[in-house]
Amino acid sequence: MIVGKVVGSVVATRKNEHLVGSKFLIVEPFKNMEQGSERFVAVDNVGAGIGEIVLVAKGSAARIGCNTESSPVDAAIVGIVDDWIGLE
User: Fold this and answer.
1) Residue 78 has what pLDDT?
2) Of 5, 11, 63, 78, which has the fewest CB atoms closer than 10 Å, so is most exposed?
């Protein structure tokens, strides 16, 4: 899992049928969480907003954890962090 901050959102009016109704957010991982620390897009399943610190599952864990096994999802927000002292 990766911890990062939501820094924006993406709007896609045309998308895969399995993603209809999904909200897409741009996440910037904390520098010590992932090599490169490049921003990426994640499907939001918990109602996160811009500026919040979130937990993100990537790869097949993102699909399985969100009951979207048939969706083309590589990253999913699975939690909102309440206390993140020491993670940055």
Assistant:
1) 93
2) 11
Spatial separation of the C-alpha atoms in residues 37 and 67, rounded to whole Å: 27
Low-confidence ranges of the chain (pLDDT < 50): none
Q: In this structure, which amino acid lies at residue 43?
A: V
d(CA 53, CA 49): 9
Q: How many CB atoms lie within 10 A of CB 60?
A: 11
| pTM recorded for the entire structure | 0.85
pLDDT at 31 (0 to 100): 81
**Residue 62 identity:** A
Q: How far is C-alpha 51 from the chain's CA centre?
A: 13
Q: Confirm or reject CATH 3.40.630.30 for domain 2-12+21-80, answering yes or no.
A: no
